[in-house]
Amino acid sequence: MVKDYHVIEALGKTKVVIENCEVTSVGEPLVDYCPIFDKIDNAKHLTPEFIKWNIEKRIREFGMCTPQRVVRMKDFLSFGISEILRTNIELGSIDCVVGVCDGVGTLLMTDPEIIQGVGGRVSALVSTTPIPEVIEQVGVENTVNPETGDLTPIKGLEMAIEKGYKNIAITILADKIIKEIAQYPLPEDVNVYIFVAHTTNASNEEVEIAFDYADVITACASSKVRDFAEKEKVYYSGSKVPIFAITEKGREFLDNRLEKIGKPLTINDYPMNKDKHPNPLI
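^ thats the sequence. predicted structure below, dont judge the formating
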């Protein structure tokens, strides 16, 4: 039997290990302050103690990394990657999302509530092991590696193409594999859109690759992402943790969500006011 072992990076890119439904390890956060967690939990500082409490709350509330995992959810934030993807699936602009889920690994998602529930309240997933109860909820037929729970976005893309999807979104961390995904030889009638999240402490090379090949990028606590966006004057939305639209299609995806919630559309006003951004930016 595979050992139950899940690794995430959360709240200031802190490494957290969850085993058998319990938090067994919490590293040191790289970021002291995040406006999102200040708003949600009144957290003025990201400490290991707070991070442990926050992850344990997620385990209690929706079973993260446990057999009790709730995979369906309504909107969590008004404007985040999961919400953007959910809205564009509902509109038909995207017909499949390749993402990852704790207890599942890489999977294909077409149900808006599963897209929201899988990604809405979970930070970056580094590795996971299969949990049969969770795989059953999302559908073993949608799971790329149900025996191992591997995180393999290229195989997810291949599976989506094999199933006949034409407008495929992939959520990915800031990584060199973004270029490989963007350059994958696609059938002529297939489009792939890349959404990059968890950019805190990304390297210059990773950020440059993301801006070269992605459609949407979240700022997180990355100074490099903000600097690159300032230089390129790309469209964005958000005053605290901006989300950047690198391509015209990316801007369309963001604006679709903003229209849905009645917010002003993307802007390219620079310089950005960083007073309410995470601190420090790294």
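The radius of gyration is 18 Å.
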